[in-house]
């Protein structure tokens, strides 16, 4: 029989920094679990660089 732990702390955080008016960077972290036959925990990281395009005509 598999024992599943309840009440597990799964934190998540996101930080966004505007480098310029048209460019920002985003860093995200989260902790997740998967519950197949045995419980697995993983730490997830995401780093993005995004450009923001302005409309040519208003």
Helix content class: under 10%
Strand order of the largest sheet: 1-2-3
The biggest sheet amounts to:
3 strands, antiparallel
Helix/strand order? EEE
Strand content: over 45%
User: Helix count?
Assistant: 0
Distance between the termini: 63 Å
Question: In oligomeric terms, what are we looking at?
Answer: single chain
Low-confidence stretches: none
Mean pLDDT: 84
Rough shape?
elongated
- Secondary structure: number of strands: 3
The secondary structure category is mainly beta
Rg on CA atoms, Å: 19 Å
SSE diagram, text form:
Layout: E1 12-20, E2 23-34, E3 40-51
Antiparallel strand pairs: 1-2, 2-3
What key phrases describe this protein's structure?
3 strands; mainly beta; 58 residues; 57% strand
Short description:
With 58 residues, this protein is an all-beta fold. It has a domain at 9-35.
What would your notes on this structure say?
The protein has 58 residues and is mainly beta. The chain has a domain at 9-35. Helices cover 0% and strands 57% of the residues. It has no helices and three strands. The protein has strands at residues 12-20, 23-34, 40-51. The chain has a three-stranded antiparallel β-sheet, with no helix packed on it. Strand 2 and strand 3 (40-51) form a beta hairpin. The protein is elongated and about 60 Å long. The protein starts with 11 loop residues before the first strand and ends in a 7-residue tail after the last strand. The mean pLDDT is 84.
């Amino acid at each position: 029989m598999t024992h599943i732990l309840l009440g597990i702390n799964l934190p998540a955080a996101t930080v966004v920094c505007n480098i310029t008016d048209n460019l920002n960077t985003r860093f995200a972290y989260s902790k997740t679990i998967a519950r197949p036959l045995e419980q697995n925990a993983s730490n997830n990281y995401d780093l993005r660089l995004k450009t923001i395009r302005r409309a040519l005509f208003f």
